[in-house]
Amino acid sequence: MSAPINPFKAALRDGRMQIGCWLSIGDETSAEIMGTAGFDWLVVDGEHTIYDIRAIRRQLIVLAASGSHPVVRVPAGESWILKQVLDAGAQSVLVPLVESADQARALVSACRYPPQGHRGVGGAGARATRFSAIPDYVTTANDQICVLVQVETRPGLAALDDILAVDGVDGVFIGPADLAAALGHPGQSDAPEVVAAIRDALTRIRAAGKAAGILGIAPETCALYRDFGAQFLAVGMDALLLAGAARALARQWRD
Q1: Which pLDDT score is estimated for 124?
Q2: Backbone angles phi, psi at 174, to 5 degrees
């Protein structure tokens, strides 16, 4: 029995558009609700939220029953957290602040078992192997792990072409908020210089044969990123959806 097929990785490889959303609330019930909404993929954000490895694991469990593929954003590109997240059952990971080809190669290696990489082999009691119910997991998992790297700084943009040449990087995600700050426009991802940099980056990613990803919040921004060539596009965030709907409802009845 082999490792499960990763449908998100297959969709990216086939060039199919994938619409997603951000999970930042940190509760498995809200994640389960989001899993019923019909998104292709959902980001379990371990970088800017309260998620720890136990919370990430709980998100993976509830999303397994949905049609939405979980993509876990780790807090940093460290082998130890990638190992834990993969053992918890994640098949797709998003790594922030990637700034060089060497860093990208190290991340790919951390997500692959030897001899292709250096992921620790200790999955006998892990959720990823269904607690040893998948006997061929170690020999088949490498092909099903999707590695997405996040470029969001000046050094990252400068190294983008080299990062794109790294075998095993399935997609590059542009972080618009951090990129805007790095370019001298904090909180202004719609500044002309930032928009031009995003368009150039998404175009280069697609031209290199990799999947291009990004997060938008406003509908017009999401449409713009789509037109720029984003293939895995996050179009919202759970906390903002809840906050917006709650505030609108309160205003409606107060008025």
Answers
A1: 86
A2: -90, 125
